[in-house]
Amino acid sequence: MAKYYFCGIAGNGMSALAQIVKSEGHEVEGSDRSFDIGENLDIKEKFSKMSIKIHPQNGNYITKDIDYFIYSTAIENENTEYKKAKEEKIKMIHRSELLNHYVNRYKTIAVGGTSGKTTLTALIWHIFNTLSLKPLLINGGYLLSLMEKGLIGNAYYDNGDILVIEADESDATIEKYHPQKAIIHNITKDHKTIEELEKIFLRFALNSETVYINEDEPLVYSLYQKIQKKAKLYGKNSANLKILKIHLSNSKFNAYGQEFNLPLGGLHNIYNAIAAIRISLDEGINIKDIAYAVSTFKGTFRRFNIIGEINGIKVIDDYAHNPHKILATLTHCIETSPNNRLIVIYQPHGFAPTRMFKNDLIEIFSKKLRINDILIMPEIYYAGGSVNKDISSLDIIKEVKKEKKHAYYFDNRNEIINFISNISHEEDIIIVFGARDPTLHRFAIDIYKNIQEKYDKIYKYGKEK
Question: Coil, strand, or helix at residue 253?
Fold first, then answer.
């Protein structure tokens, strides 16, 4: 048994690995600056229940008895614990190296792409798990079914020989993995330029034994010519896809000659399902069993989760943070609920991404939002560290307003809650968009509760009158 110390243990990738390491019987400790400022306390509590010790991130707990110090790209060289681990000559392992250790140990299915990979990873694992293949999971988001069991939700340890992972391209560490099966679902601007991403995903493909290529995505399909011998195609044509019905939160379609009921809305989620079904078929699973498993999928945390509905007003929490994901969700809402007004709250997840996406975001909000829809933006989320704050959410709002759209900027995010309560009316769809910030889910709940209190008072007054 070895002792592992995770610096930044609350990060999605880090927390998943910490759980797997602990499940193998090793001693696990760690720290996270979000815990130190009172955030992510539900995750901290779940770590405690797993007997994972959590310490303040001050360097005092970096001791010579630690066998492995695990860190991620988010940890700066000036981090107190990072420097102390170097001084103590503790073996230092990057998150991606530890993940690659597991990739090489198992029959790994690595899901890559710039959009949808968390849901796709979750759905593949769910199908395999439902059908008793005992797969392991390392994901970048939380499965609602696992959260219901009291788990963090982004990792699961079992005694099968299959591992399903989300392979993140944001820091290019995806190039290190040599999985048995890889999926490249899409390539859109996110974290890096298109040119950089094409090179990263090509190297990922070349390192993999078999690569599943999405034939519906031109940038992904362009890789097919370079890796034909190891590539398999999936997509609308391969699946002979026929859309039967798409509602706000569920879909019905026919693929591979079988009817599927997917408890998720949106064409993009049907495409996610097609990929998961293709992988499952190639594992020798009966298509009717796959259809049953798909019908029981509960989804992932903050991926179009409906917080509640009152007086026809729906409040939705969604992780969408880049232009491609935001456009997909807006399109889905408008197509399935054309008569409902949208109130969109978008909190950008960092200054560098906002700088990169600024023009794309302005174009999407200006062209996609209709005349009665409303865009609201608080200030850009600041996660700490040294960053150039030369851009603001207000810069986007000003440009969208020039296109005669209803757009509002709030320096104080808490003021948005009452503002929405005052302007919302029957049949509105309110969506909270944004990533990284662990308080956004609570924010969406607070919006819903405030609207609920408003109508409770109206109903009470009406009865008294």
Answer: strand
Tell me the C-alpha to C-alpha distance, in Å, between residue 227 and each of 223, 234, 245, 308.
7, 15, 35, 46
- The two three-digit tokens of residue 139, written as one number: 């994901």
Ordered structural domains, the chain, with CATH: 3-95 (3.40.50.720), 106-295 (3.40.1190.10), 305-464 (3.90.190.20)
Element (H, E) at 287: helix 287-295
Q: Average the pLDDT over each of 12-26, 86-100, 150-164, 168-182 and give the range with the smallest value.
A: 168-182
Beta strands in 141-278 (DSSP E): 155-156, 162-166, 181-184, 210-214, 231-234, 242-246, 251-255, 258-262
CB 93 within 8 A of CB 74: no
8-state DSSP, 414 = T
CA dist., res. 165 & res. 139, Å (int): 6
In SS3 terms, 325-375 reads as: HHHHHHHHHHHHCCCCCEEEEECCCCHHHHHHHHHHHHHHHHHHCCCCCEE
> Are the C-beta atoms of residues 362 and 398 closer than 8 Å to each other?
no
- Name the one residue in this structure whose structure tokens are 């990057």: 94
Which two structure tokens, joined as six digits, stand for 2? 């070895």
Q: Are 235 and 214 in contact, with CB atoms under 8 Å apart?
A: yes
Strands 374-378 and 406-410, sheet pairing: parallel
CA-to-CA separations, 230 to 149, 210, 223, 283, 337, in angstroms, rounded = 39, 5, 11, 16, 42
Both tokens of 270, joined, read: 């049907």
pLDDT in tens, 30-78: 999 999 999 899 999 999 999 999 999 999 999 999 999 999 988 989 9
The residues facing 414 across adjacent strands are: none
